[in-house]
Amino acid sequence: MNTSTTTSGLVIAIDGPAASGKSSTARAVAGRLGYRHLDSGSFYRALTLAALQRGIPVDRWPLLTHEELDSLHVDAVPADGSFLVRVDGQDVSEAIRGADVNAHVSLMAAVPAVRGWLLEILRETGRNGGLVADGRDIGTVVFPDADLKIFLISDPEVRARRRLLQQGAHPDGETLRQETERLAARDHLDQTRSIAPLVPAADAITLDTSDLSFEEQVSAVVELSRVREP
Ligand code: DC
């Protein structure tokens, strides 16, 4: 798969827990710097969609071989400052956000063979620099030599509120309490899984966005990147 770009510049890794604003921040930072944005979660989502479409039973996913993963025909092409993730050559950007994929993607992401299969593909996207990549293990596993590593955190209740607002739900009372609990449970799973757990890289800069506006958090990352430019 040819996912390389012709841009030059830094490789910036943005990791953090669910609903910490990684992808939207990474996209905006990439836009400000003229870099490309890589949403690594979209690849796990596309593999999940393809496996569900092919009817591969979930209990077989941990046994998927390299050849079987190849045969799911998941790839990505550079497009509009990011990457268009495809299954069988079809744009699946919308389909990978569906409820069925949401419910199953963490199972796919926990399969060691899947993470191994994806590693070189993800690394290839940063070969020429000029990349802002977000995920859970970008600074620790995918780009351990990234020029700048950011670990975004924010208060679980702040994240729950943001997520509910995004979904058009009313973020108060019992709804907010339940969403906060769901996020805390997901954080715990991501932090304690044996493969590529969600932990900040030793050289990551932790940015607590609880009291920052979106614009402030984007500017903070852009400012940090300016300091790292050669
Ligand atoms: O960020 P997201 O919700 O699109 O991620 C989808 C799933 O993939 C989620 O279960 C976390 C997982 N993931 C991962 O394990 N490592 C990454 N680098 C990115 C996502």
Walk me through what this model shows.
The protein has a single domain, classed as 3-Layer(aba) Sandwich (Rossmann fold), CATH 3.40.50.300. The strands form two sheets. Strands 2-6-1-7-8 form a five-stranded parallel beta sheet. A three-stranded antiparallel beta sheet has the order 3-4-5. α2 crosses α4 (99-109). It has helices spanning 22-33, 41-53, 66-70, 99-109, 112-125, 138-142, 156-166, 173-192, 214-228; strands at residues 11-15, 36-39, 74-79, 82-87, 90-91, 131-135, 148-153, 205-208. With 230 residues, it is an alpha/beta fold. The model is unreliable at 2-6 (pLDDT under 50). The protein has nine helices and eight strands. 2'-deoxycytidine-5'-monophosphate is lined by residues 40-41, 44-45, 105-106, 109, 135-138.
Strand and helix layout:
Layout: E1 11-15, H1 22-33, E2 36-39, H2 41-53, H3 66-70, E3 74-79, E4 82-87, E5 90-91, H4 99-109, H5 112-125, E6 131-135, H6 138-142, E7 148-153, H7 156-166, H8 173-192, E8 205-208, H9 214-228
Parallel strand pairs: 1-6, 1-7, 2-6, 7-8
Antiparallel strand pairs: 3-4, 4-5
